[in-house]
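User: Quick sanity check before I run a bigger batch. Here is a single chain. Can you write out its predicted 3D structure?
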Amino acid sequence: MAAMYTCEIMATAEVLGRVYGVLGKREGRVLHEEMKEGTDMFLIKAVLPVAESFGFADEIRKRTSGLASPQLVFSHWEVISSDPYWVPTTEEEYLHFGEKADSANQALKYTNAVRRRKGLYVEEKTVEHAEKQRTLGKNK
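Assistant: Done. Predicted structure follows.
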């Protein structure tokens, strides 16, 4: 399960794309958006995982040059639907997801973060494609 924040963002129309970009990068989902009466401000309601929220306010202000201001309030716990140890097994899954299933598995990411924080063993590759370093100059 993942803790979720309800995020209310007030932003102007010209920075809406950047707000959506930051929310998407941090696994947020927009619930609805409405324009405030008599102003050019939009009120965006979204949900955002607590684990992804660290530095969120700074990043959204930086990306929008201060034209968007978020407010985060704890909302609920949400079940993560994916299996942290899933690997593609059938031919169809290999064709759809690729051999390594390149999209990041959120459940595995959260599990590994908790295991790392508690000092438990985390199975991960540190070097994927290593090559011996060459010197480009001539040896004398």
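The mean pLDDT is 84.

User: Great, the batch can go ahead then.
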